[in-house]
Amino acid sequence: MSEAGAGAAPQWRRSRRSGSTGGQCVEVAATGDGLVRIRDSKDPGGPQIVISAAWWRQSLPYLTGVPDAAGDCLVAACEGGWMLLRDARQPEGAILRFTTGEWEVFLAGARDDEFSLTAEDRLRPAGQPARRLRELFAAGRRLLSDTTQHGRLAGGTVHVG
Fold first, then answer.
1. Single pTM value for the model
2. How far is CA 146 from CA 140, 142, 143, in A?
3. How many domains does the chain have?
4. 68-106: per-residue pLDDT in tens?
5. Would you say 65 and 144 are in contact if contact means Cβ atoms under 8 Å apart?
6. According to a count of CB atoms within 10 Å of the terminal CB, is the N or C end of the chain lower?
7. Which residues constitute the domain of residue 112?
8. What is the pLDDT of residues 56-71, one digit of tens each?
9. What is d(CA 20, CA 16) in angstroms, rounded to the nearest whole number?
10. What is residue 74's DSSP assignment?
């Protein structure tokens, strides 16, 4: 089985837990071109957030509540019962909208290393946990709600980093 190279059509991944949301979820793709793409499975032809693989690696632990993790490219906000996600560097760019259930499923999958990257900037094959993330998660997990106690949540917005 060959892996897709840079420039290949993205192979989108949802959390294995997305069945509980009717299959609708946050989808992530990385083809080895140094970029990570994020989209809403309810709108596969719609907008995408595209960030560097390095920023994804930095932001993913923070989004999932790893203590002292840092990242500064994604902004997640709860508004009107929706979780909104955008690239902090592009305030006029795409805003993705997920139900809280879809967001929770994504975060659970991220905590299980479903969206971690290989050294070649591809999504890690299912069933192969990232050792570094496992070590970070073992050091302590915090839920999104815990960030309010540490001053990272202001006005319903979490600035990643």
1. 0.71
2. 12, 6, 5
3. 1
4. 655 667 888 889 989 999 898 888 999 999 998 898 889
5. yes
6. N
7. 16-131
8. 988 888 777 766 655 6
9. 9
10. E
